[in-house]
Every structure is written in structure tokens, then in C-alpha cells.
């Protein structure tokens, strides 16, 4: 983390919200969000306008988030799970509080078409508002790849998932984000299978594909770590979230490092995901949570978040406040044809979830 970002985030990175007890009468909202996924000014402005203090913790994987919530009494008021599988699973389990839209006047600012997409995970959109969205694809440095494998495809997961290609570019560094929840559906899609398949044979095929490239993968790390490493030029090919790559591009330019880093949505189609603003069922401060969600849905606030983290939001009126170079970047707001090729996953059943967990553990261990 560079010094500027560290200084910006210092007021936000506090001790665990669950471990702190507010002074009597103090209004507090405890937020649990992804790493590097907020506009610091939004936090400061919310506190100034409402008098509600924000305690802000971060996580770097859906597995971490679900582990914290599954234990119960997390102490958080607002969490940001991805629509599938985590948000859908938490909603079905009764772990989320239905939102009171009378306390969220800005609810109507959201794009109805995007809300309809999320309704498959949350019928009636009862438990969450859309925070940000994006795709899963590749961050690549084409010049380094071409130097090692001139004929390797740059627009397909063949680049990483075909062992013959992975072997050739291993010297310049391959990394995959440490999230089987997100990676395995993309592998299944690449194999020509249903990304939501629970079939044992399909799980085995995904495992074989991953184990075949494991000797050539330098790192399986959090998406936040991938972002920093990409910006520093440590890898030439990664599989991660779209915004991680766009953030890395910005950091590399600010540091005066080499250009050439680009984000690629696989031509077979990228996984489309939505991160949701939700309230745990046992949230200690639900009123403050509703106020925070309503504040975040303001067009100018969501624009600030998109400008900061380079992920698109679901508030169309925010576009007029987004910097032109960000709004025009197809890696931030993908063109319609790219969205048309994308796919959405659903939460696997318990047996399939355990099978995928075993696949991911073996992939990480390399056996």
C-alpha cells in the first residue's frame, strides 16, 4: 500500500468493530467492506452530515466475510457481500435484515435493469441495494507475454488455463486470486460447461484443469495483493476482478512505472457480479445502517466511489459526476456486447459447495 493511500485510509482502518463498545449515547455504524473499496471522503461526509461515527473494517475474500458472519454476533451493521453466492446464501439463511425502503429515500436511484439481474439472488430485492458491480477476467502485460509466447491468445483464458501457454509465460509471472467461489465458475465456463454445474464429473474436470497449470502459477493470493503487485510489475497475467486491474493501472501511472497493463474480458464471456449493501439480521444499529445505505445511494456519493475505486455503480444519475476518462473507460463500464456475453452464477448446493472447496484446497496445495 503506497503512502498516499495509507494516509487516506488511516481514519478508516480501525480495530474490529465487533470488539469495540461505543460510549453511552454515541451513534455508530459498523461497516465491513472489501479492501480498497470506498471513497474516504464519503465516510468523512457521512459523519459530518449525520453525526454518526463510522467504524470501518475490511475483508479480502468472500470466504473471510462468510466465516465472520457464520459465527453470529459479528457486530457489523452494514456488510458488502457479492450477490452470488454469499449474499444469496445469507438471505436464504435468514442472516440478513429485510430493508425498510421507507428509510431509504434514495432507493429509486438504482438502475431497474440491474436490480432485475440481482432479483434472481434476492427475490423482490428485499435484502440489499447494489453498491458496485463488475466482471472477472484477466489483467495482462501484452509486451512481456509476447516476448515469451508470441502466438499466445490475449483475449481468452487459454492464455492462463492451457498448460502449454502457462508454461511459456510462467517466467513473467502468473497469479490467480484466492477465491474458489469466483474462479471455479470461470474455469467451468472455459471448459464449455455450465458455470453453475454441480455435476461431480464437471468438478473433476475443473480440478484437472487447475492442477495442470499449478506448477506454472507463481501466486494464489488475495485480490488486494494482486492489485498492488500488478501495479509494481510483478506479474504479466492474472485472473481477478476487473476493478483490481483498473486500480493497478492507475497506481502504476502515478508511480511512473511502465505502461502496458490492460484488462481483458475473456471472449467466451466473463462472470458478471454485483456487490450488495446489506444489513445483518443481528445488526446492533439498524437505524444507522439504513441511513448509511441511503447516503451511499446518492448520485454524487456513488460517483465519488467509482472515481476512487474504478468500479461501475448502479446509479445512472451518477454518470454526470464521474470523471470523463473514468466514465468512458470500457474496462470500468463495459460495452453492451461484452455484457451480453457475460454470465451470472448462482449459489451451489451444500454438496457442490463442499466439492468446490475440496477442488480449491487441492489446487492451492498443488496435489
Structure explained in plain terms:
With 367 residues, the chain is of the alpha/beta class. The chain folds into 2 domains: 3-128 and 278-297, Periplasmic binding protein-like II (D-Maltodextrin-Binding Protein, domain 2); 135-272 and 343-365, Periplasmic binding protein-like II (D-Maltodextrin-Binding Protein, domain 2), CATH 3.40.190. The protein is built from 17 helices and 9 strands. Strands 4, 5, 6, 7, 8 and 9 form a 6-stranded mixed beta sheet that branches. A 3-stranded parallel beta sheet has the order 2-1-3. α2 links the parallel β1 and β2.
Give a nutshell description of this structure.
This protein is α/β, with parallel strands linked by helices and 367 residues long.
Give descriptors for this structure:
alpha/beta, D-Maltodextrin-Binding Protein, domain 2, six-stranded mixed sheet, 9 strands, disordered N terminus, three-stranded parallel sheet, 367 residues
CATH superfamily of the largest domain: Periplasmic binding protein-like II
- The fold-level CATH name of the largest domain is D-Maltodextrin-Binding Protein, domain 2
CATH architectural label of the largest domain: 3-Layer(aba) Sandwich
Q: In total, how many beta strands?
A: 9
What share of the residues lie within helices?
40-55%
Number of domains: 2
Largest sheet: 6 strands, mixed
Tally of separate helices:
17
Q: Could you give the distance between the termini?
A: 33 Å
What is the residue-averaged pLDDT?
90
Amino acid at each position: 500500500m503506497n503512502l498516499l493511500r495509507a494516509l487516506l485510509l488511516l481514519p478508516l482502518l480501525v480495530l474490529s468493530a465487533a470488539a469495540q463498545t461505543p460510549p453511552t449515547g454515541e451513534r455508530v455504524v459498523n461497516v465491513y467492506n472489501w479492501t480498497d473499496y470506498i471513497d474516504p471522503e464519503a465516510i468523512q461526509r457521512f459523519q459530518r452530515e449525520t453525526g454518526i461515527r463510522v467504524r470501518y473494517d475490511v475483508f479480502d475474500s468472500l470466504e473471510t466475510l462468510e466465516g465472520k458472519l457464520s459465527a453470529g454476533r459479528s457486530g457489523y451493521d452494514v456488510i458488502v457481500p457479492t450477490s452470488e453466492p454469499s449474499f444469496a446464501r445469507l438471505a436464504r439463511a435468514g442472516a440478513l435484515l429485510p430493508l425498510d425502503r421507507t428509510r431509504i429515500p434514495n432507493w429509486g436511484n438504482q438502475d431497474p435493469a440491474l436490480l432485475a439481474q440481482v432479483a434472481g439472488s434476492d427475490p423482490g430485492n428485499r435484502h440489499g441495494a447494489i453498491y458496485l458491480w463488475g466482471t472477472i477476467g484477466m489483467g495482462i502485460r501484452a509486451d512481456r507475454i509476447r516476448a515469451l509466447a508470441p502466438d499466445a491468445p490475449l483475449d481468452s483464458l487459454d492464455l492462463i488455463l492451457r498448460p502449454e501457454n502457462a508454461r511459456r509465460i510462467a517466467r513473467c509471472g502468473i497469479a490467480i486470486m484466492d477465491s474458489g467461489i469466483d474462479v471455479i465458475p470461470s474455469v467451468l465456463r472455459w471448459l464449455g460447461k455450465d458455470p453453475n454445474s454441480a455435476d461431480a464429473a464437471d468438478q473433476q474436470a475443473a480440478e484437472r484443469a487447475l492442477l495442470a497449470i499449478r506448477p506454472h502459477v507463481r501466486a494464489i493470493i488475495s485480490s488486494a495483493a494482486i492489485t498492488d503487485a500488478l501495479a509494481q510489475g510483478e506479474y504479466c497475467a492474472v485472473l481477478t476482478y476487473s476493478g483490481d486491474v483498473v486500480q493497478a493501472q492507475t497506481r502504476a501511472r502515478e508511480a511512473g512505472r511502465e505502461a502496458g497493463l490492460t484488462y481483458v474480458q475473456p471472449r467466451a464471456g466473463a462472470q458478471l457480479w454485483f456487490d450488495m449493501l446489506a444489513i445483518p439480521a443481528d445488526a446492533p444499529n439498524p437505524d444507522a445502517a439504513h441511513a448509511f445505505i441511503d447516503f451511499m445511494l446518492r448520485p454524487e456519493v456513488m460517483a465519488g466511489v467509482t472515481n476512487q475505486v474504478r468500479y461501475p455503480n448502479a446509479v445512472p444519475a451518477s454518470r454526470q459526476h464521474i470523471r470523463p476518462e473514468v466514465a468512458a473507460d470500457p474496462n470500468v463500464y463495459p460495452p453492451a456486447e461484452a455484457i451480453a456475453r457475460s454470465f451470472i452464477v448462482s449459489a451451489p448446493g451444500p454438496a457442490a459447495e463442499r466439492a468446490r472447496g475440496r477442488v480449491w484446497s487441492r489446487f492451492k496445495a498443488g496435489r
